Amino acid sequence: MPWQKMHWRSIKTAYSNSPFFLYYGEFFLPSFEKKQQFLVDFNTSLLKTIFLILKEEKRITLTDQFEKTVNKKTDQRILSGKKNPPSQSRFPEYTQVFSPTHGFIPDLSIIDLIFNLGPEARPYLEHFQHP
After folding, report:
1. For the whole model, what pTM was predicted?
2. Are 15 and 97 in contact (CB under 8 A)?
3. Residue-wise DSSP of the chain
4. Which one in 7, 51, 69, 100 has a CA-CA gap of 20 to 30 Å to 62?
5. Are 116 and 18 in contact (CB under 8 A)?
6. What are the backbone dihedrals phi and psi of residue 126, each rounded to the nearest 5 degrees, phi first?
C-alpha cells in the first residue's frame, strides 16, 4: 500500500471520533490521494489546506537551495526539536481524542487542533500571537 494511503488511514483511525473530523477530513483527503513525485509537493499541498481551513492568507515560496541563515525573515527552524521544548503552561487545554487515557498533550499537531477545535483553531492560535 502506498505510504500516503497508509498515513491517511492512520489519521482516520486516530481522529475519526474527533468532533470536526467529518467536516475537515474531506479538505485533507485530496492531498493524501494524489500521488506526488516529491515530498515537498505533498507538504506544500497540506500547508495550503491548513491555511485554507484557518483562513490564513500566506504565500508559500521555496528556495532553490538550503539557506543556513535567512535574511530579513523570522527563522523558526529553531523552534522544532527537543532543544527548545514548548512550555506546557503556554498552551490552554482543549479536549483531545485521547485525553481520557493520556491527558492533554500540548503542541501535538495542527491536525489535532483542527479536528478537535474546528473553527476555534484559529482563535486558539491567535492567542499566541498576541499574549
Report:
1. 0.81
2. yes
3. --HHHHHHHHHHHHHTTSTTHHHHHHHHHHHHHS--SSHHHHHHHHHHHHHHHHT--------SS--SS-TTS---GGGSSSSSPPPGGGS-----TTHHHH---TT--HHHHHHHHGGGHHHHHHHHH--
4. 7
5. yes
6. -65, -25
Average pLDDT over residues 22-50: 94
User: Cβ(46)–Cβ(24) under 8 Å?
Assistant: no
Cell of 21: 473530523
Domain residue ranges of the chain, discontinuous segments joined by +: 3-64+90-129
Is-contact 55 73, C-beta < 8 A? no
C-alpha cell at 1: 500500500
What is the grid cell recorded at 73?
525573515
- Quote the CA–CA distance of 125 and 119 in Å, as a whole number: 11
Buried b / exposed e along 10-19 (16+ C-beta atoms within 10 A) = ebeeebeebe
60 within 8 A of 47, measured Cβ to Cβ: yes
Burial category of 108 from C-beta neighbours within 10 Å (exposed 0-12, middle 13-18, buried 19 and up): middle
